[in-house]
Design brief:
Elements: E1 2-5, H1 12-19, E2 24-27, E3 37-42, H2 50-54, E4 61-64, H3 74-80, E5 83-85, H4 92-107, H5 110-118, E6 137-141, H6 145-156, E7 160-164, H7 170-174, E8 179-180, H8 183-189, E9 192-195, H9 209-214, E10 219-223, H10 232-241, E11 244-249, E12 269-271, H11 280-298, E13 306-308
Parallel strand pairs: 1-2, 1-3, 3-4, 4-5, 6-7, 6-9, 7-8, 9-10, 10-11, 11-12
Antiparallel strand pairs: 5-13
Helix pairs in contact: 1-11, 4-6
Length: 309
């Protein structure tokens, strides 16, 4: 039996230590194939589709070192009885901290002002109007673990938090101190927006030109979740027109950027290299738990982090 490790960020030595003698562990390069492959360790940059699963007839488990799992064909895995596992509750604190840090940097013009000074300027107004936190309305779009953690932090700073999530009951949102709202209601009323939704057919492109136009002029947008939640061209146009006063992204449509798809640049646009999840402790957890999930599945157990089995 073999376990393939698709994402080179995993430590083969650690994976072997966790799985033990139950299977041979080796680096796997797509297209994966083999009648004896029972486990596949992957990550967001290594999608697993129907054709991949068809080439692995003995596969029992796919585990990804991420919260998101839209890069794995869940329907195909379910049809085959293949366990799919993610790490649903890691990096919650880090993601919430980073989302808040990006939002506050936009509201107080920290990055834009720094760029201006380094370009030889000395003008407090170049970042546009700077906002105080107290009383400012923040829409947290996607009220799962990370969204709730961000709401707790934002409330402590005096922001008025609106929770947008059609899959969470109003009572559940209100229990965390947030005002339940639809996206349409939030677009009309909130100045700040932080995206934390999973990427699904329902949420893909959820913030496009129409939604941006319905925000108050001079709004702020933060996305640390998935790049495909927004229309990037529409965001850049909104920044150019002033409809958005600032935006911050930890995710891009093409990662890392290249000559064909360079990182977008605007004075009030912040781009981070998909780092919002990171701390030394959570980095280790992200790669340890998928290996544990594979070990559990191969032992005939339901993995603690199973999405489908």
């Amino acid at each position: 039996m073999r376990v393939l490790v698709a994402d080179p960020s995993y430590s083969l030595e650690e994976v072997r230590g966790i799985i033990g003698d139950g299977a041979e562990v080796e680096c796997g390069v797509a297209p994966w194939e083999g009648n004896d492959v029972v486990g596949l360790l992957t990550g967001p940059d290594f999608p697993v589709g129907q054709e991949d699963l068809d080439r692995l007839p003995a596969l029992q488990v796919v585990a990804t070192c991420s919260v998101g799992y839209d890069h794995i064909d869940l329907d195909a895995a379910t049809a085959r009885g293949i366990a799919v596992c993610n790490v649903p509750d890691y990096c919650v604190e880090e993601m919430a901290d980073s989302s808040l840090a990006l939002l506050l940097a936009l509201m107080r013009g920290v990055v834009a002002l720094d760029r201006s000074v380094r370009d030889g300027g000395w003008d407090h107004s170049v970042a546009g109007p700077l906002h105080t936190f107290a009383g400012t309305k923040l829409a947290v779009v996607g009220f799962g673990r990370i969204g709730r953690a961000l709401a707790t932090r934002a409330l402590a700073l005096g922001l008025e938090v609106w929770g947008v999530d059609p899959h969470v009951a109003d009572e559940g949102i209100a229990a965390h101190g947030a005002h339940p709202a639809t996206l349409a209601e939030a677009l009309k009323s909130c100045l700040c927006f932080s995206l934390h939704s999973l990427l699904t057919d329902e949420t893909r492109g959820m913030i496009g030109a129409d939604e941006l136009a319905r925000m108050p002029r001079g709004s702020y947008l933060v996305d640390t979740a998935r790049a495909a939640l927004v229309d990037f061209d529409a965001v850049l146009a909104a920044l150019d027109s002033g409809q958005l006063a600032g935006a911050a992204f930890d995710v891009l449509p093409v990662e890392p950027p290249n000559q064909e798809a360079p990182a977008p640049e605007r004075p009030t646009l912040i781009v981070n290299p998909h780092a919002a999840w990171y701390s030394p402790a959570t980095e280790h957890e992200a790669y340890r738990r998928p290996a544990v999930a594979v070990r559990e599945a191969l032992a005939g157990l339901r993995p603690a982090d199973a999405l489908v089995l």
